[in-house]
């Protein structure tokens, strides 16, 4: 039995993400949790002819049932970013939501792999880690900040810019998951870029979320692309931990010592049966990318500390 829970399953990311997870034949049970509407989402998805048995769980009293026995927990829960809203604004709302869900995981499925999508990821992942530490169940191999949307965007934008097949494009994006903490490593691709192209692509990859928020004109943020990116990551993790396929790699925000002073950092990570198998170091950077990394680190350290302090001062 492979049980997967989606926490925040009725939301803008949660619904399409749940659909994509229902399509994965490795999933035998799919538990959907939210504060509203999950029974309806579950009923809808349950009609799809794939193996996963779907259950809907609504409200605090049903969180335990959603989580018990989980192999993988995916957390897209929280409010979306709206025009004019900073990631600090998001933090003030989403931090409490993530703390509650992390407490449920620590209590009901402490050995589960955890994929955190809830923004701001740079702070919510440390929040989950601190909650798990308080319950003495923190396993750094099993906690992931999902930064895959940055990679998905980078692949799309680069392939479009160069007129090449996106299926053969894979750009590493290191650092964190917001603004200047997002560091695309364009020099590691097989393409050549002018400096103007590099700067334009970097800006677009770092602030692609703003592009979507503006285009949706107050109606939400990046939900469909985030659901796709989240499912890509979760499916890779299931391939490694359930199917035991070797050599699967994704960029992800994990506990790491690759950058001194940053307790968490996103680089290429190879998965194994227990989650994180190998963390790759920061790749060779050119001068421009080094400047990006230099700008990333203090902001990232501050974001991480904010999450840690939220739990320690609670």
UniProtKB/TrEMBL annotation:
Residues 2-145 form the Lactate/malate dehydrogenase N-terminal domain. InterPro entries: L-lactate/malate_DH (IPR001557), Lactate/malate_DH_C (IPR022383), Lactate/malate_DH_N (IPR001236), Lactate_DH/Glyco_Ohase_4_C (IPR015955), Malate_DH_type1 (IPR010097), NAD(P)-bd_dom_sf (IPR036291). The keyword NAD applies. The active site is at residue 177. One of its GO terms (biological process) is carboxylic acid metabolic process. It catalyses: (S)-malate + NAD(+) = oxaloacetate + NADH + H(+). Keywords: NAD, Oxidoreductase, Tricarboxylic acid cycle. Substrate binds at residues 81, 87, 119, 153. Belongs to the LDH/MDH superfamily. MDH type 1 family. Homodimer. This is malate dehydrogenase. It comes from Chytriomyces confervae.
